[in-house]
């Protein structure tokens, strides 16, 4: 029987064609890091992630290096302080000198040590308690006096420098604290 006018006729081959799904391949994307990676197949688009991975690794490595450097500097200072009175006094004096440079205080120049210690005491409230006299006097004994430094002298010198360091650290801004702690490795 023939279909009437206006009726749709569908043949068997047309039904098969309509049921078949035409597959349009999706574009595959591959990611490569240092030349390795991908989808396992041939990718249509490949993104090289080497540069972002390197930047990320460097950004993660920088704080670790700062922390390690700080720990090493502190351990070295403590080891020198534990080697004996002379070594402790000289290590404390070196740290004291570095703090003076950071504080932008003048160097000794042509002054003798007592004049220099007095000038430092006048220039900074942090040194007005006699810290400069103690540290400089003990350092001179260590340099020129041989083993005449008593354990108490060395202990007082290290304590004076450590106290100065903490008080100075408390006066700094957050940016300067970061520099003092991680770049100069003073605390």
Q: Major sheet, described briefly?
A: 3 strands, mixed
Determine the fraction of residues in helical runs and give it as a percent range: 55-70%
- List unreliable stretches of 5+ residues: none
Q: For the residues shown, what is the average pLDDT?
A: 84
SS content category: mainly alpha
Radius of gyration, CA atoms, in whole angstroms:
37 Å
Order of helices and strands: HEEEHHHHHH
Which shape, going by the Cα principal axes? elongated
Q: Order of strands across the widest beta sheet?
A: 2-1-3
In DSSP terms, counting alpha (H) and pi (I) runs of 4 or more, how many helices? 7
Describe the protein's architecture and organization.
The chain is mainly alpha-helical and 187 residues long. Helix content is 61%, strand content 6%. The chain is built from 7 helices and 3 strands. A 3-stranded mixed beta sheet has the order 2-1-3. Helix 3 packs across helix 5. The longest helix has 33 residues, at 50-82. It is elongated and about 115 Å long. The termini are far apart. The relative contact order is 0.10.
Question: What is the gist of this entry?
Answer:
The protein is mostly helical and 187 residues long. It has helices spanning 12-19, 50-82, 85-102, 113-123, 131-144, 151-171, 174-183; strands spanning 29-33, 36-37, 45-48.
